Amino acid sequence: MKITKLIEKLGSLEPDGQPFFSIYINAEPGQNGRDTYPTWLKTQLSDEEQKYKDDEGQLARFNEVKARINSFVESEADAAANGIAIFARLGEGEFFEVVQLDVPFPASSFHSGEGPHIFPLARAVYENPRFAVLWADTNKADIYVFGGETRIRSDVDLDSNVASIENSVTSGTSAGGWSQQRYQRRRENFHMQHAKEVIAELEELMKNVEVAHLVICGDEETILPVFKPQLSKPLEEKLIGTVSASQYESPEELREKALEVINIETATSQQKKIEQLNDAAKSSAKMGTLGVEDTLAALANGQVQELVIASNIDSIDYSKKKVKKILKEYEPGDDTAPAKALSAIGDAGAIADQLIIRAINTGARITFVTDESTLANDGGVGAILRFSTNAQSTA
Fold it and tell me: How far apart are CA 213 and CA 259, in angstroms?
């Protein structure tokens, strides 16, 4: 299941009076190379168990869920996963879902409440889009795909080398004069044909796999003049940079180099997004919102084209009174809202979940912003709108 679909499923769950567990695990190995999270998880489950010690039936139900969680961790958890999210519910409406990711969650956390807590999962997905890396020289090429939301349990292994291309290149010659010139033209034609074959393979891959970014690696004197001109417009739009890399570098080394380029591009694009948001919010047509309250109302109206939200949940700030009023106003017949809309007004995590679920349910894009200062005065939230209900904009 795609993680965005899982988030939709989690957000639409009706509370049934039973506890729901959202467990986020940073599964990166410790200093000794071993997993440290099993000990942390054991402590969290033991603490949670104490809540049910006076209720025999509830304790039995909890122990069933605990056994299932422990069974997964001991027997099914992927050793290569750096982030693990487990969602489970007690009671008759059994629910158990696990997500494993390449990227770690910033910290392990255990949440027990009426419904699932989805903010950390959404952040992990939207902050780590899938990207392609093309390594190439004049007669060989490898294409890799990294990241995305199908890290594990996918029909396609997107974390390994997904394409490898090699052509036999002509060797050097000692002939001179016209023969040398003919050879040079022949070699250039071969390199051009090789580049076209590689780009065709890359385009075919991207028809089947949604990729947000493309990075080309290799000898920059070779890849730029030969490969870049062969890119189609869709590929050119996804290309965010080139990286110098030798044929001896591992896929992981190529991934790290590509991520450096992607992180720089992401920081730049986030800054531009904040500027766009501020301009939209301050325009006479009011094509943007700033703050949780106005953004929540716009989401309920289906106005939001893009939700912009701080990556740090502690940045989410709002008026409980105003948010409660908005949620009550839109609650009847509001298909964009999670069922537990009014259950946790004072919980910033629950409000962040509300914003994300409503954005997904209305087809809005979601952008997480890592620089806390950019939305610090606006409650950590804003939105760019599809349309405005402001009277000035329709005049």
Answer: 10
